[in-house]
Amino acid sequence: MTAAAPTPATPTPLFGIDVWTDVVCPWCYVGEARLLEAIEAEGLTGRVTLRAHSFELDPTAPTGSTEDNVTGLARRKGIPVEKVREMEAQIGDLSREVGREYVSPRPMGNTRGVHRVLQAVQEARGAEVATEFFLELQRGHFTDTVNPFDEEVVVTRAIAAGLAEADARAAWAGTTHDDAVEEDVREAVSMGARGVPFFLFDDRYTAPGALPTETFRQALRQIAAEAEERASTEA
To answer: 15-62+111-234 has which CATH code?
Structure first.
């Protein structure tokens, strides 16, 4: 009998990247794509962990109702609809530069329920599963293939991520995990965040905004070198 080949060991992550984000934030969508592009370009795929944290762009948005993003932004900011469409077109161009579809208009509404479910998934299944659950909702929102304001859609995806249905519905309804959302927001604000995306690299360096891919690459290169040096010193 031939012995099975040993399974290659999974490399130990060098460092973590925490990102505060909202499911309806277009710059978060672009920023995440640029970050992943930079991670791959620097040969760090599988060597860093990405953790999503809650942050609401518009906590005052009405719960239980939606309007399209163009109309809603024009109303809230007091700017012409055509101006919003121009802004959307510009972000769409940036999205396509990193190989991502960008659909406009899209539904918009209060995102608190999504954030509570994110926190519930994280508690039950861990940060990695919760992050993927959240980012899939975000990607689906911007390609208009997922409605993150539909309770059944979010609960179904939370169940697929391993969360019990009762726990998902309780979080969506606000019975649980509201404090966890607030804690995430307070942590970001305490580090100087005024909006999202907001990044924390290796628990040491913060960076606001959807940075250019090359800027992400330079930061990752420096932080990875520091992490490797630290690991060799501690070995």
So the answer is: 3.40.30.10
- Phi, then psi, of 149 in degrees rounded to 5: -105, 5
Q: How far apart are CA 230 and CA 51, in angstroms?
A: 22
Biggest alpha carbon–alpha carbon distance for the chain: 74
- Report yes or no: 19 and 198 within 8 Å, Cβ to Cβ: yes
Amino acid present at 158: A
CB contact at 8 A, 119 and 131: no
- Domain range list for the chain: 15-62+111-234
The dihedral built from the CA positions of residue 154, 155, 157 and 158, taken in this order, carries a sign that is positive
Residues of the chain scoring pLDDT < 70: 1-11, 235
Query: Residue 48: helix, strand or coil by DSSP?
Result: strand
- Could you tell me the pTM of the whole model? 0.92
Q: What is the pLDDT of residue 201?
A: 98
